[in-house]
Design goal:
The chain is of the alpha+beta class and about 260 residues long. Among the domains are: about 130 residues, no CATH class; about 30 residues, no CATH class. It contains 7 helices and 6 strands; from the N terminus they run αβββααβααββαα. A hairpin with a 4-residue loop joins strand 5 and strand 6. The longest helix is centred in the middle third of the chain and has 25 residues. It is globular. InterPro entries: cDENN_dom, DEN5A/B, DENN_C, Tripartite_DENN, uDENN_dom. This is DEN5B protein. It comes from Nothocercus julius. Keywords: Guanine-nucleotide releasing factor.
Length: about 260
């Protein structure tokens, strides 16, 4: 809804949904499917071809409830090949419709009706159509179609680095030609049911899919857990903006961060 249909089909976003979640439900932390779906894929489902960048991306989110309690989500988004011929055919049909609309708009804006310019405009239209088909097309016989997919961990504390490492290792196991030592379900069961939260002031080492992972929890007299790398803040905001934000914090001003 509200999508700009002037964009090519591969630049549009499509409706996503949660495929599976474990465990099914927890009494003290009920699973909010709509919220998690929206926060995992805020822009919706997207498609790519072999010509596009498909590097995995990591992001995090916070769900704050009415009582002020928080849960933290850590998401790894990657692209996997579309194996459904029906979806590939539908994408090609969308491109044919899109190119036809673009071509008709090119014709409408040119001087097609003027006899003196008929031949030159026809050549121009043909050139425009060729460009559209070359730079803005999907050919089912030539291109490989990929679709975005997410794996997400929801935790009671923001152990960003530990969750990031686990998700990356899990993703490698999913995409690797060589399967991991144990079935994937074993690693998921382990982190959900067998890895405890570290006690305050202690660190915990547990095994991921390939390498051990360490997470640390601050003690009662220490600053709250902040596992986010400060370097990324400097890279995102820049030095001057960060100094300005820090000044606003010290002056107890209201701060609004706006982002895509």
């Amino acid at each position: 809804a509200g999508e700009n249909f002037d964009q090519s089909p591969l630049r549009r976003t499509f409706k996503s949904k949660v495929l599976a979640h474990y465990p099914q439900n927890i009494e003290w932390n009920p699973f909010d499917q709509d919220a998690v779906n929206m926060l995992c894929m805020p822009k919706g489902l997207s498609f790519r071809t072999q010509a596009d960048n498909r590097d995995p991306q990591l992001h995090s989110f916070i769900i704050t409830r009415e009582d002020g309690s928080r849960t933290y989500g850590f998401v790894l988004t990657f692209y996997e090949e579309v194996t459904s011929k029906q979806i590939c055919t539908a994408m090609q049909t969308l491109y044919q419709m899109h190119n036809a609309e673009q071509y008709s708009s090119v014709c409408a804006s040119s001087s097609c009706s003027m006899d003196s310019l008929a031949s030159s405009s026809d050549e121009g239209d043909a050139t425009s159509l060729a460009k559209l088909q070359r730079y803005n097309s999907y050919d089912i016989s030539r291109d490989v179609l990929y679709v975005s997919k997410c794996i997400c961990l929801i935790t009671p504390l923001p152990f960003m680095q530990a969750c990031k490492k686990f998700l990356i290792q899990l993703y490698k196991a999913v995409t690797s030609q060589q399967p991991p030592p144990l079935p994937l379900e074993s690693y998921i069961h382990n982190i959900l049911y067998e890895v405890p939260l570290p006690p305050p002031g202690r660190s915990l080492k547990f095994y991921g899919v390939y390498e051990p992972i360490v997470c640390q929890r601050p003690g009662p007299n220490e600053l709250p857990l902040s596992d986010y790398p400060l370097r990324e803040v400097f890279e995102l905001l820049g030095l001057e903006n960060l100094v300005q934000v820090f000044t606003c914090v010290l002056l107890e001003m209201q701060i609004l961060l706006y982002s895509q």
